[in-house]
Design brief:
Tektin-like; cell projection; 492 residues; flat; flagellum; mainly alpha; Tektins; Tektin
């Protein structure tokens, strides 16, 4: 059996396989796509970017004013230049054109058709091959395996230590996440009613990948933005620190959980292998088994790996606790009312939501077809694996017969017809096994391609669903409400 997710320095062993065949991985591992979904480069330096919008506005000619008015206007302009406008930073970091959006959809459709056709051809050819070779195979018997001893007490000790530290880290992550959410809400509420349009732009920035399109909806929202008031830089800075610390906490938690998962798996395997006994005698393989032995880590490095993970987690928890205290003080110091005049503006989202819904329906159709093809390919792989298992018995019987016949005494040790037939039988079965292995590899590669296509379709489908959710729920929802006073300090 294979050990997935093991650490580089962990020490453990596993039962040696009792046949020449490689271990067959589970179907779950076949679903993994080895390549990331293709991401398109966003359009850049377009005339409709926000920076260009504000550069144009700042270049407008100022009419003739009195000296006092010029002084006041000069002061306002200096203050305006020093003020930080989130729209200048985050309104349009990356953009795609509608052309990019349609081309991406068409590319996904073509890829889906190609992968399904390839899988269908492979399935037909493989079924014919399996039918030709079926008469050469028989069912096999299970053989014995060797007992394995493992340091179960050490694993149990480190498991308890890891569980304790994971519980502490999860509590700290929950506490810091709650403080971060309060800080985010307080920061949003400082913008007041005039920030509703900017808030819509902010939510639409959460659109993913190809859906980050500079469409008509976004152009209308940008024109709505008139003023941005008193954004607190310290709050933003501490929010960034909280996000970074959460990432560090989760990274430490992930290392602990991965280490714990490895130890749980190792303990389960070692415990099962510890009770294995010989089930039969007289039939076994005689050479090549040593090549399947895994490499081992040293006991010192094995225990030090877990100890280092625990110490790192404790250090991150201490930093996180200190940051929470600082954020609490900051929230109490910046809880000021910042109400401004609210202008209600109607924005038409209907056309864009209709286009996104149509694209989502098309993706769902292709995804359903791809899932059906994946199911058929999985059934094919299972059949190939069963065919490989069925060939173990004939091979062992032939090899055992050859081995037993070597014990004939004196002149009886004759290279007769049965001997020649047994040699041919072994070679014939080995050739069959090799061909089935090759076909199994082809089927698994095809399944990987289908899974990759499925992942791309599902990713694009989630992008469309996310965009619809942002337009329908987030943007349209906040335009119907005003913020309340308690929310200025981060409480709902």
């Amino acid at each position: 059996m294979e050990l997935m997710g093991s650490t580089l320095t962990a020490e453990y062993t596993r039962p040696k396989t009792s046949h020449f065949f490689p271990a067959i991985s589970t179907m779950v591992s076949s679903y993994r796509s080895n390549q990331p979904v293709l991401a398109m480069n966003p359009s850049a330096n377009q005339p409709w970017r926000t920076n260009a919008y504000y550069r144009t506005g700042s270049a407008a000619t100022i009419p003739s004013l009195s000296s006092i008015q010029r002084e006041n206007l000069g002061f306002d302009l200096v203050r305006a230049k020093t003020m930080f406008y989130p729209s200048n930073r985050s309104a349009m970091i990356t953009r795609y054109t509608p052309d990019d959006w349609y081309k991406s959809n068409q590319s996904n459709y073509r890829e889906s058709e190609s992968s399904r056709n390839s899988a269908e051809r492979l399935r037909r050819d493989t079924i014919r091959l399996m039918q030709d070779k079926e008469q050469l195979t028989r069912r096999t018997q299970e053989t014995t395996s060797k007992n394995i001893g493992e340091r179960l007490n050490d694993i149990s000790f480190w498991r308890s230590e890891l569980n304790h530290e994971i519980d502490n880290m999860m509590s700290e992550i929950m506490a810091l996440t709650e403080v971060k959410r309060r800080l985010e809400r307080a920061l949003q509420e400082t913008e007041g009613p005039l920030q509703v349009s900017q808030e819509c732009l902010y939510h639409r920035e959460k659109r993913m990948s190809i859906d980050l399109v500079h469409d008509d909806v976004e152009k209308d929202l940008i024109r709505e933005v008139e003023t941005i008031k008193s954004c607190q830089e310290r709050m933003r800075r501490h929010l960034d620190k909280a996000i970074a610390q959460l990432a560090s906490n989760r990274a430490a938690q992930h290392e602990l959980e991965r280490d714990l998962s490895d130890k749980v798996t190792a303990q389960r395997i070692d415990n099962r292998c510890h009770h294995l006994r010989n089930a039969s005698d007289g039939i076994s393989y005689y050479r090549g088994i040593e090549r399947l032995d895994p490499s081992l880590s040293l006991p010192d490095s094995w225990s030090k790996f877990t100890d280092d993970n625990i110490l790192h987690s404790q250090s991150e928890r201490a930093v996180s606790h200190k940051l929470r205290d600082v954020i609490e003080i900051l929230l109490n110091a910046t809880s000021n009312e910042m109400w401004k005049h609210f202008n209600t503006v109607n924005v038409a989202f209907t056309n864009r939501m209709s286009e996104t819904a149509d694209a989502k329906n098309s993706l769902q159709t292709h995804l359903a077809k791809t899932l059906q093809e994946i199911f058929q390919t999985e059934m094919l792989i299972e059949s190939l694996k069963k065919a490989l298992r069925d060939k173990e018995c004939p091979l062992k019987v032939a090899q055992t017969r050859l081995d037993e016949r070597t014990r004939r005494p004196n002149v009886e040790l004759c290279r007769d017809n049965p001997h020649h037939r047994l040699v041919r039988e072994v070679r014939e079965i080995e050739d069959t096994i090799q061909k089935l292995r090759e076909r199994l590899m082809e089927a698994e590669n095809t399944l990987q391609k289908l899974v990759k296509t499925k992942a791309a379709l599902e990713h694009d489908l989630s992008i469309k669903a996310n965009s619809l959710f942002l337009d329908q729920e987030k943007c349209m929802g906040i335009r119907k409400s005003f913020p309340s006073t308690p929310r200025l300090v981060g409480y709902t």
